[in-house]
Amino acid sequence: MINALVSTPASSFAEIEKVFEIACKGSNDERIAGATILCGASLIRGWNIQEHTVYFITRLLSPPVLADYSENESHLISYAPMLNVLLVGIAPVDCVQIFSLHGLVPELAGSLMTICQVFGSCVPNISWTLTTGEEISAHAVFSNAFALLLKLWRFNHPPVEYGVGDVPPVGSQLTPEYLLLVRNSHLISSENSLKDPNRRRLARVACSSSSKPIFVDSFPKLKVWYRQHLACIASPLTGLVNGTPVHHTVDALLNMMFRKINRGNQSVANVASGSSNSSRLGSEEGYLRPKLPAWDILEAVPFVADAALTACAHGRLSPRELCTGLKDLADYLPATLATIVSYFSAEVTRGVWKSVFMNGTDWPSPAANLSSVEEQIKKILAATGVDVPSLAAGVSSPAALPLPLAAFVSLTITYKLDKASQRFLDLAGPALETLAAGCPWPCMPIVASLWTQKAKRWSDFLVFSASRTVFLHSNDAVVQLLRSCFSATLGLNTSCCISSNGGIGALLGHGFGSHFNGGISPVAPGILYLRVYRSIRDVMFLREEIVSLLMQTVEDIVCLKPKKSKYGHASFAAALTEVKVAASLGASVVFLTGGLGLVQSLFKETLPSWFMSIHRSEKEGNRGGILPMLRGYALAYLAALCGAFIWGIDSSLSAASKRRPKILGCHMEFLASALDGKISVGCDPATWHAYVSGFLSLMVRCTPTWILELNVELLTRLCKGLRQWNENELALALLGVGGHGTMGSAAEMIIETEF
Length: 755
Hints:
Blueprint: H1 2-7, H2 13-25, H3 28-38, H4 41-44, H5 50-60, H6 80-89, H7 93-101, H8 105-119, E1 127-129, E2 135-137, H9 138-150, H10 170-173, H11 176-185, H12 191-194, H13 197-209, H14 220-234, H15 245-257, H16 268-273, H17 294-313, H18 319-332, H19 336-350, E3 355-357, H20 370-380, E4 400-402, H21 403-412, H22 419-438, H23 443-454, H24 459-468, H25 475-490, H26 504-508, H27 525-532, H28 542-560, H29 572-612, H30 626-647, H31 655-658, H32 660-676, H33 685-702, H34 704-708, H35 712-724, H36 728-737, H37 743-753
Antiparallel strand pairs: 1-2, 3-4
Helix pairs in contact: 2-3, 2-5, 3-6, 6-9, 8-9, 8-11, 14-17, 14-19, 15-17, 15-18, 17-19, 18-21, 19-21, 19-22, 20-24, 21-22, 22-23, 23-24, 25-27, 25-28, 28-29, 28-30, 29-30, 29-32, 30-33, 32-35, 33-36, 35-36, 36-37
């Protein structure tokens, strides 16, 4: 019956609530059964009761203290079997996405931190047997909770991602402190917040675990680990003092990891660390694994990994011994994989380790399918026109990886591809992909080749990930990819690899994989860019490139599009429609890639600089003025859309919209100064005229709130400039939207122009 309830979603709220009550108040076996049912089909496919299911699971992860509970240890210890079932049940990435969809990640993080604090402080002297016969310990419960907690923020990504633009990306804000602050904000019970039904729901969930705010200081062990993690990223590892508890733990773990190594009179810890302070190892048969709390082990793991890696670099450990020892450590406490990931991530980005040859003797070799990966990458990128650097390596120069990355990938491929290992590979996989992508070419294709040999069903994903790294090492390749995006969207691409009809279908494609059309096929450029843009380190170079690509696209629209007027040129109305599409794509790229910082820089620096520069094109001859005008309108739409995307069109109180008056005021001051003759414009007069009139027209029609934020004197100067061009209607409309302060100027203008 339990299997049937697990595989079938609950039909009603009453049914799922009954399961929750059994999980709360039943016997140990009933609790386990209830938790198993909640994590089944009702969570994954129960669309009508999914919201209630995630709420009940979150409540079960913070069970109340029973009235008759009198033990000194935390009451969570008695719930260990049920908690473990819940943690394993919601570990898949899809389940984490479900909690995120319902806004419960902060509440989930708060519950997981509590579980980690309790079970990570326990010495694993006791164990529990589940109904399946599986035996779990405090280490198992801690590892499952810790791995799930780390999936909730991007702890394993290099810090270089956090330095883009004026405002860091959202991913960098998903720290433990941030998640708890969001969780605490849900506790606010003011009248205004309770008017929002979603706020009421989140407040109810937050109060179910604890009615008081919680902070990282409430979890001292987690705080110590997190500070050590940040310190490991910031600088090389230091601080291990002989004779301290951490040093003793390091020696114990090294002896456990390398107990099979025979080095004569040397102890295993001596072999790895090169020291002479460790006691000699006894026989393997009499060896017992150390009984230590999980937090104590995690504190020692960076020093253990550093000692082992250093020993391998100096020839005191073979690569096979290194990987076997690290796997033994991860098997002993699976949560150590997270700290190993953290250490290897930091060491790879430092670039101080020598590269090792993946020759198939000391390290696994990618030679069996590296050439196949290269051919598939070339097929995937065929629609972009980007050259793929050759992966072929000579006999005297086999494929090589930095030592920490070689150790990391060798460790991951030792894992079995089963459900138990999957939740930890889900933790290590994104870190491995990010690290390999950030290393010099062809590190990622080598990693993809090694993993493809182990898991052929992941071949498409691995090859696609390898193909995107081509763009991470060359700004020219990124520009070429963006050029392909413009060409595909507007149907300007003459290549047979993608549709020539243009549109969103040509930009984003209709799928990818070796099962489409009998094999790997070219990938639409838009999909490639969506996978690449988050990893572009220097986005500021895109300011000029987007403007340049937009101008080139306008030229191509005029010259290549088949829609002709009776004079043989492109129809202005048809061309303007295409220009709007190109400008909307450019604005989307700017907003998506650089956010607020890139948009502000576009208004303050790029556009003024472009207009003051002199531009010449061989294709401008005999175009009757259509090309310069379309250029101006393209830039007007680009600027208006970028502003609308980042600032909004109304008077909202968002952080970005608060900066709007200052940035927009600077840009309007530039326009007014150029119209006054204080600044010389170097571009074509028709382009300048089209931009000013087009941008101000868009503001009048679409974003009148922006005009209200400008001062009256500035609006008056703009209107005087427009009247010099006989743009009287636009000038009057601009004053009309300007509010009470511009009424006098509007009246004067009406009288002067005899309207």
